[in-house]
Amino acid sequence: MSAAASSGRLARRSAARVLSAPVMVLLVLFIGPLIYLVYVSFTEAGITGDGSLTLGNFQEILGEPIYREVMLDTVVIAVAAMTILFLVAFPVACYLAFRAARWEIPLLLAIVLTDELNPLIRIYAWRIMLARDGLINSVLQGFGVIDEPVAALMFTRLSVIIVLSTTSLSFVVVPIYAAMKAVDRDLLEAARDLGAGWFMVMREVLLPLSAPGFIAAMIIVFVPMLSDFAAPAVVGGREGYMISSLIEEEFNERSDWGVGSALSFVVLAISSVFVFASVKASNVRRMQS
Amino acid sequence: MSQGALELIGVTKRFDDVVAVDDVSLAVERGEFFSLLGPSGCGKTTTLRMLAGFEEPSEGRLLLDGVDATQIPPFKRPTNLVFQNYALFPHMSVYRNVSFGPRRARLPKPEIDRRVGEALRTVQMDALADRMPAQLSGGQQQRVALARALVNDPLVLLLDEPLGALDLKLRREMQIELKRIQREVGISFVYVTHDQEEAMTMSDRIAVMSRGRVEQLGTPREIYFHPSTRFVADFIGTANLLPATLERAGERPTVRIGELLAEAASIGSAPGTELAVGDAVSLMVRPEALRVVRERSGGGLSLPVVVDDAIFQGTGMRLDLSTPDGAQIVALVPADAADWRPGDRAHVEWEPERGHVVAEPDQ
Fold first, then answer.
1. Which of A189, A192, A193 has the highest number of chain B CBs within 10 A, making it the mutation to test binding with B?
2. Is residue A137 situated within a structural domain?
3. Residues A144, A37 share a domain
4. Partners of B267 in the beta sheet?
């Protein structure tokens, strides 16, 4: 047996020992609860439940219109909020990557810092802005734009969308900015030289080449939005319900762990499908290039 | 003189306080292979970028086909640029890269196909139209970049050191190929390079640039044999520049090098710097114009020298010599010439018509 082989084995053995701790943490704290969640979602775990295995939780979720409606609402709210967030973040990222010059780093820091604000404080700040006698209504009334306060601003789907779309700006701006920054300037000049105006440069060259940044940003913000709890709880009211509001009710008010777990499982499934689809899309792109 | 394809009139470009291009005027004829040659930082690339429209002149005007184009943005100019690093779109096939320009011009599909096919055939890349740029070698990418620009049938094709990234052998091949393509398509080429050999091989005319100015504009022959300044003489090829004093100006200039009164064929002086008798000048003699002999043969002009080094170079022998005054001279002699050794005493000889006088740089 050669010395190299034995030292290789030794290295592997000590590597296994070093890695065993994080693997244990992962198993105990993440994988374990996840398996338990899946297990509970298939059991009779309500107040009257006897813990036996059942498909009833899922039948209830899919059968009752309220669950389906809230699930659909959740996806609509998350998609709408994400769309708004991207519409705001895209020009900001463009500006940072191409035009900001010496303000690039200060602005980038400023944007990252805004996300350091505690989310709850931000949501309560929005509550003050959006309320019936809040800042937005007062200003609009003051300028005579509206006679009556706009009620739709508070405790609606719209209010949840507004609040969600103003969180995590930096998580969208930074990946897009970084991806655009990495695009070779010569390619943009080449496109202009070959007769493309700014719109065509963007559509044909800049966007396709910075697509991985967009996909990364989508993955980062969509999943937390889908399962957001604080925004619907504070500004959602009856109308702006999201899945997490239902899950909270199942666990805390109805004590039906089975249905609660099944709902969580559905969120997990939607998120996973979304993430896999996104990764797949970005892999296809990479293979093309 | 026919209508020029391109004309720069008193163009200056300043970046903040730095003058990158200083009052450059030049004209490029239709179908001409024109090179901007100079060391890095001489302003050649900035000049090219102004021609392409990526930089706007601080002063002066640019005419394309006789029409003022100073304000026309790049995507509306009848010019196309071949980038130094090719700048092929990595997410598009060769076909989509080359058809980018025609597609922007909204040509009908059959016309696009015809043009792309023709351009790819010109650069001998028609067999690889479906490849992605990453699947091509450097030389092939170079050809695609050329086709992508040529396909638009520009008034002037601009090339920014396009062969810089290729190895020497491939670069030589591409030089010949580029010249062939240029003759075939008959488009004016403006070629930026720092490689004087490359410029000489391909160009009809060369503008030698230094510190933002055009030092000399002429055919390769004129620039090689009759450089207008010491800088040009030194930059183009190898030049022996012997310190001298001007004894007689005019048709047959004569200079004094120590004891030797040397007649020369011509005198170069940049516009506005007329030389007067008594001025410090340099006598330029190219290494291949020198003979090295043990005993004076009596013909032509002659200086005593000592051999410092003799280097066999295959095609010839390079002799590094020095005069009693300490001036360094390089001579290229046939490889089968006498066996020279360091320390040998000798004489260099040359014919008066191989000499050329340039001014010493003032200061």
1. A193
2. yes
3. no
4. B357
Confidence of residue A1 (pLDDT cuts 50, 70, 90): very low
Domain for residue A46, yes or no?
no
Query: Which residues of chain B are within 8 Å of residue A186 when distances are taken between CB atoms?
Result: 83-85, 87
How confident is residue B227, by pLDDT bands cut at 50, 70 and 90? very high
- CATH code for the domain of A156: 1.10.3720.10
B148 and A CB contact within 8 Å: yes
Q: Do A288 and B134 touch (CB under 8 A)?
A: no
Query: Residue A274: which of A207, A223, A206 has the closest Cα?
Result: A223
More confident residue, A122 or B251: A122
Confidence band for B280, pLDDT divided at 50, 70 and 90: confident
Contact A192 B74 (CB under 8 A): yes
Cβ B97 vs Cβ B35: under 8 Å: no
ipTM reported for the complex, 2 dp: 0.85
Nearest CB among A193, A195, A289 relative to B91 is that of A289
pLDDT tens-digit profile of B32-59?
A: 999 999 999 899 999 999 999 999 999 9
For residue A167, the distance in angstroms to the closest alpha carbon of chain B comes to: 33
Task: Say whether pTM exceeds 0.90.
Answer: no
Q: How far is CA B160 from CA B52, B169, B295, in A?
A: 11, 19, 50
- The strand order across the sheet containing B33-37 reads B79-82, B156-160, B188-193, B33-37, B205-210, B213-218
CB A231 within 8 A of CB A248: no
Q: Are residues A142 and A169 in the same domain?
A: yes
Same domain, A237 and A130: yes
Name the helix (H) or strand (E) containing A217: helix A207-226
**pLDDT single digits (tens) B330-347:** 999 988 767 888 999 999
Per the CB < 8 Å rule, is B75 touching A190? no
Q: How many domains does chain A have?
A: 2
